[in-house]
């Protein structure tokens, strides 16, 4: 983890405390499921939105996308 990566993570966490969906949007994008869950939780209450945003930024990998065809094994 380089210095730039650490600075970006700190910026995302700061944004997620001020406005939770913004921090999630910076990390995962505006059309992700994490972003919309953060928007919903922030509407329902500020604290749940902040807690979810910090959790998503710290522990969910944005590059976790898998190819659905990886589960199949071709036997010729």
Automatic annotation (TrEMBL):
This is Hydrophobic protein OSR8. The chain crosses the membrane at residues 37-58. PANTHER family: HYDROPHOBIC PROTEIN RCI2 LOW TEMPERATURE AND SALT RESPONSIVE PROTEIN LTI6 -RELATED, LOW TEMPERATURE AND SALT RESPONSIVE PROTEIN FAMILY. Residues 1-25 form the signal peptide. PROSITE patterns: UPF0057 (PS01309). It is found in: Membrane. Belongs to the UPF0057 (PMP3) family. InterPro entries: PMP3 (IPR000612). Pfam families: Pmp3. One of its GO terms (cellular component) is membrane. Keywords: Membrane, Signal, Transmembrane, Transmembrane helix.
């Amino acid at each position: 983890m380089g210095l730039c990566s650490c600075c970006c993570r700190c910026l995302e966490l700061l944004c997620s405390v001020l406005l939770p969906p913004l921090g999630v949007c910076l990390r995962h994008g505006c059309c992700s499921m994490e972003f919309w869950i953060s928007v919903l939780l922030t509407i329902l209450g500020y604290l749940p939105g902040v807690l979810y945003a910090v959790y998503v930024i710290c522990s969910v990998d944005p590059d976790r996308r898998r190819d659905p065809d990886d589960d199949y094994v071709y036997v010729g």
